[in-house]
Design a protein that fits this description.
Elements lengths: L12 H4 L3 E5 L6 E2 L2 E2 L3 H15 L3 E5 L15 H11 L4 E3 L5 H8 L6 E4 L13 H8 L4 E4 L21 E3 L1 H15 L5 E5 L4 H11 L5 E4 L4 H7 L14 H12 L4 E3 L3 E5 L9 E4 L8 E5 L1 H12 L3 E5 L12 H12 L3 E4 L2 H9 L8 E2 L3 H8 L5 H4 L7
Parallel strand pairs: 1-4, 1-7, 4-6, 5-6, 7-8, 9-10, 9-15, 10-11, 15-16, 16-17
Antiparallel strand pairs: 2-3, 12-13, 12-14
Helix pairs in contact: 2-3, 8-9, 10-11
Length: 399
């Protein structure tokens, strides 16, 4: 481990047997008509849960789902309990509260190796406020706390940070894996190290770009944020998405890039349309200028070939963010070409969560990646070099 944190993997069966273990998992899964459409996050939690079962602990799971302002039946975790039961091959009891007498009664009846899932923590107003009283109630039914929800580790909430003030706190196996790949790749990568950074807005990625500059050998920049950089260089971008207020920061980055050892690669051609709709007629524009009545929606074939060349020569690849408007199939070709190139690469491949991870899953290529992060926003902040509250709460004070 690169960071000095308490880790579940260092604990023995003797230390865990019979213990009530409160585990913060990330079961914020996509739902379609009340059904789970992608259970990748559930599967990612299985090693930690199984480790605790094998250690004869009593496993109490907590998570959020969506962003409810009040209890909402459509965001209940009950369907999650049913799916998780199938994945584990054992019953998972569901409690329709996250704190209180129902929870206390259910926990008191648990036997070793039982698994219990509590209701959506965001049904309680104290969760997002990191309320001490709610944190204390969550912690009151357990002997120790395991943080395994990397996807929410950038949030200082009751279930991610607050409970660690009342219980001994440990990193779960998923958190350990996320840190191993993300932190390890930045600090001690196999080279050449290529970063492919996409996304819609410069404002959301400038921190990552700055942090990686000088650390990676090649940085490929794509997605709609490309157009803010092109505008900063004096090109016309038509109706493409760009951020006028970020021109100054874009110019500063470009200046820093010139003096950096990192080779920065921008798209050399663009797929453009006059209207952003699925049946829009597209065309390819070479170079950096886009007509006033057009907007860029994807990288062109020359850019795809350029990126593929960088991928096939790399030893480590980090990808975060799509290269086009992936919500529309016709404009997701560049993104899926990158996904396929990563799958064929012999490099260590790390996908930084969010839309890029969704593209990998949609393409059926998840098994071909070395690591797919479960945290979109958390992975982004980690790659910026920021301290994540949910991980900082696990740092050891004895080293």
């Amino acid at each position: 481990m690169v960071l000095t944190i308490h880790s579940l993997s260092n604990m023995t069966t003797a230390e865990l047997e019979g213990k009530r273990v409160l585990v913060r998992v990330d079961f914020n899964v996509p739902l379609e008509n009340g059904r789970i459409s992608d259970d990748s996050r559930l599967e990612a939690s299985l090693p930690t849960i199984q480790f605790l079962i094998d250690s004869h602990a009593k496993v109490i799971l907590i998570s959020h789902l969506g962003q409810p302002k009040a209890p909402s039946p459509e965001l209940s975790l009950q369907p999650i309990a049913e799916r998780l039961s199938g994945l584990l091959g054992r019953p998972v009891q569901f409690v329709a509260e996250s704190v209180g007498e129902l929870v206390e009664a259910a926990v008191s009846k648990m036997a070793n190796e039982d698994v219990l899932l509590l209701e959506n923590v965001r049904f309680h107003v104290g969760e997002t406020q990191n309320d001490p009283d709610y944190s204390r109630q969550l912690a009151s039914v357990a002997d120790l706390f395991v943080q395994d929800a990397f996807g929410t580790a950038h949030r200082a909430h009751a279930s991610t940070v607050g409970v660690s003030k009342y219980l001994p706190a440990y990193a779960g196996l998923l958190i350990e894996k996320e840190i191993e790949f993300l932190d390890g790749a930045i600090k001690s990568p196999k080279r050449p190290f290529v970063a492919i950074i996409g996304g819609s807005k410069v404002s959301g990625k400038l921190g990552v770009l700055r942090h990686l500059l000088g650390k990676v050998d090649v940085m490929v920049i794509g997605g709609a944020m490309t157009y803010t950089f092109l505008k900063a260089k004096g090109h016309s971008v038509g109706k493409s998405l760009w951020e006028p207020e970020k021109i100054g920061e874009a110019l500063a980055f470009l200046a820093d890039a010139k003096s950096s050892a990192t080779k920065v690669v921008f798209p050399v051609d663009h797929v453009v349309v006059t209207e952003l709709k699925p049946d829009a007629v597209s065309m390819i524009v070479d170079g950096g200028d886009i007509a006033d009545n057009q907007m860029g929606v994807d990288v062109g074939p020359k850019t795809v070939a350029l990126i593929e060349g960088e991928i096939y020569s790399a030893a480590t690849i980090l990808w975060n963010g799509p290269l086009g408007v992936v919500e529309i199939d016709a404009f997701s070709k560049g993104t899926f070409a990158v996904a396929n190139a990563l799958a064929q690469s012999d490099a260590l491949t790390i996908v930084g969560g969010g839309d890029s991870a969704a593209a990998i899953v949609k393409a059926g290529l998840a098994g071909d990646m070395t690591h797919i992060s479960t945290g979109g926003g958390a992975a982004l902040e980690f790659l910026e070099g920021k301290t994540l509250p949910g991980i900082a709460a696990l740092e050891r004070g004895d080293v």
